[in-house]
Amino acid sequence: MAIIRTSRKLHKWLMLFIGTQMLIWAATGTYMVVMDIDYIHGDSLVIKQHTAISSSQVQFSLADLQRQFPKAERISLKMLQGQLVYQFRAGKSWRLIDANRGTLLAAINKQQAQVIAKRLYSDQSEITNTLLLTEPNGEISPRILPAWQINFADFGSPRLYISAQTGELVTKRHSFWVMFDWLFRFHIMDYGEEEDAGNRLLLFIALTSLLACITGVILTYVSFIKVRGKSIKPPKSRNSHNKKKKIRIMPWIRFFHRWLSILVFTQLLIWISTGLYFNLMDHQKASGDQHRQRVDENTKQFAHDEFFPLRKVLQQFASIEKISVISRLDNPYYLLTFKHGLYSHFPRLQKLIDAKTGQLENIDSGFVQSMAQLSYKGNAIVKSAQIYSQTEELPKQQNPLWRINFNDKLSTSVYVDAQNASVIGHVDDDKRLADFMFKLHFMDYKILSDMTGGKVGSFNNAQIIFFALLTLLFSLTGVYWLLHLVKHKQFRY
């Protein structure tokens, strides 16, 4: 049949052109799904630190701080190396002040950064070297500079980055993260600086790959149904009578390639199709932020001499790790943190206190609806509000949150944190479509994750690891077959 001959020629020539990239996709994808993303992020490199604030150390009031630094914003009270300090932003830089004496502290020096890093590091390895970075090095954002890079003598060359202004851990890195970052660039075929999955090279190769896969499906159908009429059997050795002769590998390569194509072709088509979607999608729409506007939650200026004293707050509530001065609905509040996670979506314990009265704020439906309306840009009205312990729309969130639904055409939902009343994010139909495509691409199916004990909202699940390994083997057999055809000059027009 003409369609079979055309498919066979197209498949061979297309794979000659894109076979290497198909193998790169399979290899890089396998690495990324096999390696635990939490390990890649370096979460295992650090340990949690819980240090409670003592009320007796607060001698320098917020009013005193405001008089000395009238433009101070994003103020917080915390412990740093056993010393109670105010941390605040002044202009483009962060400052630290001794909360007992009111003296301005110098920037974090090398020795202090090493002490902080040693206390945070999860192992007892020695520090090999320490560098002060004032320019980006390809691993960290310019926004967190200047920062100290603390390198440890351990497997994978782990390193912690400590802010030279605040003494906080700003990020952590190791060699496996660097490898992941490089492989991701190869995966999306972006060889510039932006890590842009919307580049035209990826679009062209993905479209070509889709055509190659379709022709491959036709050939698989022909091999199993039209030609064979029955299951393909493993090839028999023709050299069993003479063990000295070379074993023929190609029959086995063809056998495994055809059977593997049956197992992976559907998921391979899904991967390529969803990859095309990611390449062509409108990232602004996919973010869910079409109706979102910025809410000033941290930088509002207030007369701090009218505030409820921090010392009394510390006397009322025990085991406070940090107090932040924030704004909600144009009113000042103290955000009390009793337990924090490594990331904001990790489990934590916080309370909101009225900064003028010292009373505990009740974050009810009316409060969060007002916050949602402030962050919503448009004329739609609120349909409903409901609190959840967790939600599938934001699977990483591990803290209670409110969902406020608006009656617009995109069915926008605004999520507000139930502990601190901050706007977590917007989700609309465009974002839901993008999230669905990510679920397909990552094989993130809740029913399978529940069966295998995997994490929902992650690409480190058993099903994608299994199919990634099969696809890698499928690609290797295909490349070997391709090289065999080239070697024996079996390509024909």
SSE layout and pairings?
Layout: H1 2-34, H2 37-40, H3 62-68, E1 73-80, E2 83-90, E3 93-98, H4 110-120, E4 127-133, E5 147-152, E6 159-163, E7 169-173, H5 175-187, H6 200-227, H7 250-280, H8 283-286, H9 310-316, E8 322-328, E9 331-339, E10 349-354, H10 365-375, E11 382-388, E12 401-406, E13 413-417, E14 423-427, H11 429-442, H12 446-452, H13 462-487
Antiparallel strand pairs: 1-2, 1-8, 2-3, 4-5, 5-6, 6-7, 8-9, 9-10, 11-12, 12-13, 13-14
Structural overview:
With 493 residues, the chain is α+β, with helices and mostly antiparallel strands. The protein has three domains: 143 residues; 136 residues, no CATH class; 132 residues, no CATH class. It is built from 13 helices and 14 strands. Strands 3-2-1-8-9-10 form a six-stranded antiparallel sheet, with no helix packed on it. A four-stranded antiparallel sheet has the order 4-5-6-7. The chain has a four-stranded antiparallel sheet with strand order 11-12-13-14. Helix 1 crosses helix 6 and helix 7 packs across helix 13. The longest helix has 33 residues. It is elongated. 28% of the residues are buried. The mean pLDDT is 89.
